[in-house]
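User: Working on a comparison across species. This one is Glutathione S-transferase family protein from Neoroseomonas oryzicola. Can you predict its structure so I can line it up against the others?
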Amino acid sequence: MAHGRLVIGSKRYSSWSLRGWLAVRLAGLDVEEVVIPLAGGVTPAVREMTPSGTVPYLEHDGARIWESLAIVEYCAEIAPELWPADRATRAHARSIASEMHAGFRGLRMAMPMNLGRTFPGQRRTPEALEDIARIEAIWAGALAAHGGPFLFGERFGLADVMYAPVVTRFLTWGPELSETSRGYAAAVRSHPLMERWYDEAAAEPASWQIEKYENPA
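Assistant: Here's the predicted structure for Glutathione S-transferase family protein from Neoroseomonas oryzicola:
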């Protein structure tokens, strides 16, 4: 019997849901997965099922957790190895995860997540390019310090979870990236959980697709 449920949005579009889902799967939580089709904004279905009216939302063993970063930290309490063991390194990982959670609005607005289409060269706004430059610097610093292939070494951890939707955006929109960034993006994309998410996104009904994301102006 499942010990709770994870409520997420459409896998084709929901970047925050991807973060929560990856953390829950990495921590090995036994929860029922509930997918709600998104409509480009808050819907009555989401409001009915989650306290904040947003996804992801996790219920597990009596805990009720919303906001991706809170879900990530809850999963880390169950599986501490998902953060680096060294205190200073762990602080670095948490810092870049928090920066992702709080920032990069220019990238989010210009290049929304869509796992079923590619739009290479489009939407390269000054704000998005500024965000991309900062993300590349974050990635380059962590990879140089810890040897890759993931941000803090050989394990796909919670810092990678927070940046995984950025990888999908880069694959969809095709901005110019350094060789280091391309290598990291390839490592994230090939992780088995990412392969599973992409496969399940591709299997969603066509009726769930949203015009403004499928044919952006």
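For your comparison, note: The radius of gyration is 17 Å.

User: Helpful, thanks.
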